[in-house]
Amino acid sequence: MTTSVKILNTEILSDNWYVLRKISYEYLKKDGTKQVQSREAYDRGNGATILLYNKTTGTVILTRQFRLPTFVNGNESGLLIESCAGLLDKDDPEDAIRRETEEETGYKITEVQKIFEAYMSPGSVTEIVYFFIAAYDKTMKVADGGGVEHEEENIEVLEIPFTQALEMITSGGIKDGKTIMLLQYLRLHGIL
Predict the structure, then answer these.
(1) Nearest in space to 94 (alpha carbons), one of 33, 147, 46, 35
(2) Residue 90 and residue 46: Cα distance in Å, rounded?
(3) Which of 7, 87, 154, 191 is the most buried (most CB within 10 A)?
(4) Residues 34-61: pLDDT tens digits?
(5) What pTM was computed for the model?
(6) How far apart are CA 92 and CA 131, in angstroms?
């Protein structure tokens, strides 16, 4: 299916944390008629996420941190268990995920495997996320992790048995989409 889109107007609604734009555009429908639509798109840049796994111990490294949007949407504590992730900040995805892994988890990794990339909320957010996995062991632990203070991060590092992490998807302990996708990837490919 080919589409023809013509941007008619772009208005910046907010440029506080990231950029929220209201975009009006003309869209050519498959029946040949044109339709004008307006949508808002939130641009926060692109990101990367990684799941560290240890075949010997059968564990994965996850993080827990406060996420305001989940709190506002009914998550009583606002805490979310997630795979390590961050924005690219003009780095290529592999360099960015290595940096984020060390900042958030304290593990210094060199070998990463890109498994796919995905839009996580394409109806309103421009971000594409690059997904990685990497093996880890205790010798790679070079710092406590926890995030970067100037980014106002307060991250708890968790080492969880893989089977428990899978159970936490069903029980509701893990509700983060990227984390669920990464855990299922390990399971589907028999990595753990």
Answers:
(1) 46
(2) 9
(3) 87
(4) 999 999 999 999 999 999 999 999 999 9
(5) 0.92
(6) 13
Letter for the amino acid at 81?
I
Running DSSP on this structure, what letter comes out for residue 150? G
Q: Which residue spans within 44-175 are E strands per DSSP? A: 47-54, 59-66, 79-82, 84-87, 113-119, 128-135, 156-161
Residue 167 token pair: 């159970």
Return the closest-CA partner of residue 52 out of 152, 131, 146, 151.
Answer: 131
pLDDT digits (tens, 9 = 90+) for 112-145: 999 999 999 999 999 999 999 999 999 999 998 8
74-78-83 Cα angle (round to 5):
120
Mention every residue, 6+ apart, whose C-beta is less than 8 A from residue 78.
66, 67, 68, 70, 71
- Provide the edge-to-edge strand list for the sheet that holds 19-28: 4-14, 19-28, 34-43
Which region holds residue 144: left if phi is over 0, alpha if psi is between -120 and 50, else beta?
alpha
| Cβ-Cβ contacts under 8 Å for 191 (sequence gap 6 or more) | 53, 55, 133, 185
Q: Which of 99, 89, 103, 191 is nearest to 144 (CA)?
A: 103
Residue with tokens 């070998």, as numbered in its chain: 111
- CA dist 130 and 179 (Å) reads 12
- Yes or no: say if 100 and 17 are a contact pair by the CB < 8 Å rule: no
